[in-house]
Task: structure prediction
Amino acid sequence: MKRSLPHLHTAALLGALAIHPAPSGAQAAARTKISPDAAPAAQASATQDPAIVPTGRLAEGWWAARHKHILAQVAAQPDAQLLLIGDSITNNYDKADPPNQNFQPIWDAYYVPRKALNLGFSGDTTANVLWRLDHGEVAGLHPKLVILLIGTNNTALGQTARQTEEGIDAVIKDLERRLPQTKILLMGLLPTALPSREVN
Result:
């Protein structure tokens, strides 16, 4: 009997969950994907969807430094069995700032023993995740499970629901291609910009 994973984050459990089984080799080969070698302008022209054009944030010093750190972690932990990929909700597990942002102990207690890697970057969109996948953040890994929570920042940038969905689909297809034996647990987006509850 399989044991369920501890909670990612209390709020994250409110999201809808969907399991994407790894495709067969033929299925994976049949799926189309924008070439990571194509120029961004050509990609954008072909798709008109910024959510699926791999985009880095190397001009931001902290982001570039974190990407470099993640690459070092990937090289040092080739036996990682669990990858958490996402934005600030995932990135927050690196925080050890009591009393309200002291998440590191949760990571240490529940995820380090499971050989987990935190691939969360605050502010990331699906386009940023695609860039990171293109630049080695899962290279050489063979995890049992990827937990993916991404897309909130797409909507924050004004991208439509369809664009955001296409971006999420593109990330999933990319992960399936790179990690064909890995199961993917997709977390539903958390609600944002809720309507006011004030009583007139």
